[in-house]
Amino acid sequence: MKTIEDLDVAGKRVFVRADLNVPLSGGTITDDGRIRAVAPTIAKLLERGAKVVVASHLGRPKGEPDPQFSLAPVAVRLGEILGKPVAFAADTVGESAKATVAALADGEVTLLENLRFNAGETSKDDAERGAFADELARLADLYVGDGFGAVHRKHASVYDLPARLPHAVGDLIATEVGVLKRLTEEVERPYVVVLGGSKVSDKVGVIDNLLGKADRILIGGGMAYTFLYALGNEVGISLLQKDQVPTVLEYLERGKQNNVEFVLPVDVAVSASFPDTRTHAPVEDFEVVDADGIPADKEGLDIGPKTRALFAEKLADAKTVFWNGPVGVFEHPTFAEGTKAVAQALTDSDAFTVVGGGDSAAAVRILGFDEEKFGHISTGGGASLEYLEGKTLPGLAALEG
Length: 401
What we know:
- Helices cover 35% and strands 16% of the residues.
- By secondary structure, the chain is an alpha/beta fold.
- It has 14 helices and 17 strands.
């Protein structure tokens, strides 16, 4: 794949497909990590005299404009990070986009409105998607793919547009791919994987692939209760995917055959109701119980202190660590201790540590950890997982062409 150093960008309109899908609360950005991650690529292009046209999706609008998913707040924050104004186009390929791009001078930047406001971006119809890509291509001379969090999507701006313009990968994607190769091809051992999040079904593919690569797999979060249930434990009203029990049992058996150690919670923090993550109201009935003793009327919401110590022990000698998914409801202080303990164990480790995007990356920042203490914080949760599953990612395949 070509990099931006291979492109002559001076005086050219460079379309940068970024991933600016940041969390918003009432129009306020609550985590700007993805904006900061792509800013160096944009700044490098501007310094070389490019006219930069940045584009991204945000949320899941239904193929038409929806104010709650506008990228306008992102344009403001991007400008603050770059230290220069970012012009904002009020549409994707309409009159505003055309006029805003036409007005750009060398070294200036604009951000288009949410790509998913146009149904062609996510269409499964090749012709409809291609027609939208044709319109986007008219706004640029060159294409730079740097939205790693979207490369697993066969969308117009990710898959079809690179075929219409000379293209290269941005620094962010180049870094992400290099990191993932260290997790799949050049692994230093022991290799420990920490998987959390709510559902086993979200991680089936990655567990399947890691059974031939990892030395230990630590299971936390909501998905742990399906594992505990599969082993004959009652889990109360905890999150449970009964349909995944046969798969879990198969993985546990394959783990034994492949000398892959599964590490499950030995104690959990429980409550009779899900906590209020907005007000952080106190949880009156919170208690810690053994993992095989969850009360029938309560649900597990975090790993307990014994499990936190166990996980830290299993991470202590690691040389490579991949962590995807918080191990508790970290958004509430009562149930943040498990996720905090995992993050702390990673920062204490001498291993090459990778935080696999999404909620894990947000947790690291929200809980106050120094991002520099981790080997790499990925911007693409779903993309990272699909890469680790061994799948071909459409956006990467398009950039290789």
